[in-house]
UniProtKB/TrEMBL annotation, chain A:
<feature type="domain" description="SUMO-activating enzyme subunit 2 C-terminal">
    <location>
        <begin position="550"/>
        <end position="644"/>
    </location>
</feature>
<feature type="compositionally biased region" description="Polar residues">
    <location>
        <begin position="568"/>
        <end position="582"/>
    </location>
</feature>
<feature type="cross-link" description="Glycyl lysine isopeptide (Lys-Gly) (interchain with G-Cter in SUMO1); alternate">
    <location>
        <position position="237"/>
    </location>
</feature>
<feature type="binding site">
    <location>
        <begin position="96"/>
        <end position="97"/>
    </location>
    <ligand>
        <name>ATP</name>
    </ligand>
</feature>
<dbReference type="InterPro" id="IPR032426">
    <property type="entry name" value="UBA2_C"/>
</dbReference>
<dbReference type="InterPro" id="IPR042449">
    <property type="entry name" value="Ub-E1_IAD_1"/>
</dbReference>
<feature type="binding site">
    <location>
        <begin position="25"/>
        <end position="30"/>
    </location>
    <ligand>
        <name>ATP</name>
    </ligand>
</feature>
<dbReference type="GO" id="GO:0016740">
    <property type="term" value="F:transferase activity"/>
</dbReference>
<dbReference type="GO" id="GO:0031510">
    <property type="term" value="C:SUMO activating enzyme complex"/>
</dbReference>
TrEMBL record, chain B:
<keyword id="KW-0436">Ligase</keyword>
<dbReference type="GO" id="GO:0019948">
    <property type="term" value="F:SUMO activating enzyme activity"/>
</dbReference>
<dbReference type="InterPro" id="IPR000594">
    <property type="entry name" value="ThiF_NAD_FAD-bd"/>
</dbReference>
<protein>
    <recommendedName>
        <fullName>SUMO-activating enzyme subunit 1</fullName>
    </recommendedName>
</protein>
<comment type="subunit">
    <text>Heterodimer of SAE1 and UBA2/SAE2. The heterodimer corresponds to the two domains that are encoded on a single polypeptide chain in ubiquitin-activating enzyme E1. Interacts with UBE2I.</text>
</comment>
<dbReference type="InterPro" id="IPR045886">
    <property type="entry name" value="ThiF/MoeB/HesA"/>
</dbReference>
<dbReference type="InterPro" id="IPR000011">
    <property type="entry name" value="UBQ/SUMO-activ_enz_E1-like"/>
</dbReference>
<dbReference type="InterPro" id="IPR035985">
    <property type="entry name" value="Ubiquitin-activating_enz"/>
</dbReference>
<dbReference type="Pfam" id="PF00899">
    <property type="entry name" value="ThiF"/>
</dbReference>
Amino acid sequence: MVQLVGSLRKELADSLSACRVLVVGAGGIGCELLKNLVLTGFKNIEVIDLDIIDVSNLNRQFLFQKKHVGKSKAQVAKESVLQFCPTANITAYHDSIMNPEYNVEFFRNFMLVMNALDNRAARNHVNRMCLAADIPLIESGTAGYLGQVTVIKKGLTECYECQPKPTQKTFPGCTIRNTPSEPIHCIVWAKYLFNQLFGEEDADQEVSPDTADPELSWNPADTEARATASDQDGDIKRVSTKDWARSTGYDAVKLFNKDCLSESLFKDDIQYLLTMDKLWKKRKAPLPLDWLEIQKLGKILEVTGTGLKDQQVLGVAGYSQLFSRSVETLRSMLADKGDGAELVWDKDDPPAMDFVTAAANLRMHIFSMNMKSRFDIKSMAGNIIPAIATTNAVIAGLIVLEALKILSGDVEQCRTIFLNKQPNPRKKLLVPCALDPPSANCYVCASKPEVTVKLNVHNTLVLALQDKILKEKFGMVAPDVQIEDGKGTILISSEEGETEANNSKFLSDFGIRHGSRLQVDDFLQDYTLLVNVIHCEDLEKDVEFEVVGDAPDKAPTPPSAQEDKNVANGNKDSAEPSTSSKAPAEQDDVLIVDSDEEEPSSSTMDVRMESGGHKRKLHDAETGEASAKRQRLDQPLAADEEDDDIIALD
Amino acid sequence: QFEMIDMIEKEESIISEEEAAQYDRQIRLWGLDAQKRLRGSRVLLVGLRGLGAEVAKNLILAGVKGLTLLDHEQVTEESCRAQFLIPVTAQGQNRAQASLERAQYLNPMVEVKADTDRVETKPDKFFLQFEAVCLTGCSRDLMVRVDQLCAQHNIKVFCGDVFGYHGYMFSDLGQEHNYVEEKPKVVKPKTDESNDGPEAKKPKVDPNETTMIKKTASFCSLKVALEVDWTNEKAKSSLKRTPVDYFLLHVLLKFRTDKGRDPHPESFEADATLLRQIRDDVLEAMGLSSELLPHDFVSYCFSEMAPVCAVVGGVLGQEVVKALSQRDAPHKNFFFFDGMKGSGVVDYFGPK
């Protein structure tokens, strides 16, 4: 005789009240999940989120109201839940899950961990922590109308990193600097310009014409020669924007004279590009703006139609005025901050957004592209993923159902479930698929993970190894690196300050060469990775390293069961924090969108934490490609999709 | 007299700054036009149990003009635990009334009202003030009657329930439901004539450009959908591909009609026995084998499971949004969710 407590068998209901669970994230999925958990009978819940509430969250993160804007999501979520379930035992952490305080011991407190995240770095990290602690993890993600849920159990299923995920798109420097052909190129350029003028300088974010463009010469030796020449040439056109700014002695008048700056960017630089005539043999040549003429057109009247104010597209005169205004505002914001100050681009900061809107549009106009509204540019520049309540509600419901299976001891009943926008040919809107076993050569969960990396040992800095390769690419938070040279030389220590002196040296300075092996440990993640080094001198331009075995980055592949598995892994899934355009590329126009400031590395995040007042955008649900591209309409039956008609499952 | 026309009149007025900021992420998904249509729509929601609360939340967050919560039942200790809108102190109050405050807090821009009457006592004209009606926890007869009435007046009708791990939703959007679908613009690639030099990069047509295509869908009534004839050969052969939940629904609706309530854990034994009896009767009357619903089906249809309410409420809520905004293909005409398997299917029952 089955004893029921509500809908559940008594034993299950009892174990729900007793167990402790962790919810990582209190945003779109998180709010729905917390509600489902307490209504289902879970009593001991811990929730962590580093973010604060924004008005744009209110269309779906229903535990928050307008009066809560600016407050901690985890904290307010807890309070709201207690309103309708005062007996729930909820602990809220306004913190990052990647904080070393949340070590393996911390994770071992829980019977189950459920992710409600929107970025890959955190997912990778939690994946490793759950593997280390051997705790089941339920992963999920949503984007627009699409969503998915899956279960990760060490030894039984694939881990989150078993399947390579598409990395974020970046564009080659020459496309951004010389030959943009799509609005996104101009938007990336505008963001780079913002950093060059007001923000953190980055050698990978140059905006001036690129004389080392491979297209300028079919002879590689020529390109080399030009690049060298530009270094020696004192011609102001060929040095970096930041250097140009420096060369004016940061003379406020000259530097930020709106006309002077604009003339330089939108007329002089364009005229310079025109001299590189090889570029324009098969392309429409850019048209320099006659800045002063445009200024004479006077004040623009903004017409409001039935659309949103932001959805209007102004004319060239309008954007030139917007550019001047925003430069002036940003200039004074920078001045107010004092010496050595920097601004950080933020899509929700009006002058910053105005600046990018204006600069991108002016560049689009110059390169004969139709200009776009602030609304559209904000989507692209801010990596905004549209989001609604219902998708999150469905996914969060599915998460709890999977949780119940795990707690009942029925892990073999667990599935990956995809939520589609429309039913597939077999009428399924929700598609359960069997879970895959772990991948034998997964570089995270295999028994002795190993990877091979191609790079140039003579010009790769130790710092680059740490930040771009180990942290960004391989998802480590606090790597320790030993060279397997018989001496156990310590190259990088996660202890602050210990190996700082090594950062500015090259790998070859430590005897690292072709065939060297590095043992990399992240003790927080309880993760050891062996890195084999292949020395390579002819990596492509803008490419700092290549991981052997990575699929080359291509245009979105035709829908397939494989890709579909990665579809809605989260809002930030395709906005991987690759701050450089250095990902390996086969074709120019197939590359990956530049990562966003919304997703800095953890060190930058700590700085932002301290700067108080400054809003944390980090894990705001923004990212990646338009969900329209990911629609899985009319899919053939996926290889492992369940089909009750054919296979008796019960 | 309120006149309904085919296309829901969208208010030409400007979306306020506040709305633009709050609805930003959904406007970016379904467009400003859809948002305006939502903003002009009044919806009736009957039943504020677990599923009702989920639908209420979803529609209020979406930004409809008004939502009327209709429920004559009182809050019990159990209903406090069943949904998240009713405060724990509200026992003895009317369910709709008790849900009102928290529902309104979800989005102050929506007019949320509570109505404590029994839905059976409402006159026809009561329903005519809404663009859409959503019925949960209602008897079969009532749903059929309201559906018939509303369809005549081009009011969109939705029904839904959750029974334990199972749930369904049904929609009747009328004989001629017009909507649009956004499709990417097809760009013909230009052939590259020249062979010398580096590959040229021509200014591309914006790959994100889309076009709106107008479509129409036709729906049948609930009565017809439930009265499908299974005795003919064609129907029998399609049985293999038919979700059993369709038959489970018949059984549960019959239970509800006969007992005036849903199966309750407190009377598990008696209710389970009755359920099996009803199964036999219902399937026999349809000319089908009672083995279509396996013996243990009773274990999984008691009470409303919160996560199942979330899933069904999410799908149902989105169907209402689609219908009101007249955007994107509606599911036609049933959605069945099996929370044990995690499967959710859309299937059509009615005339071809």
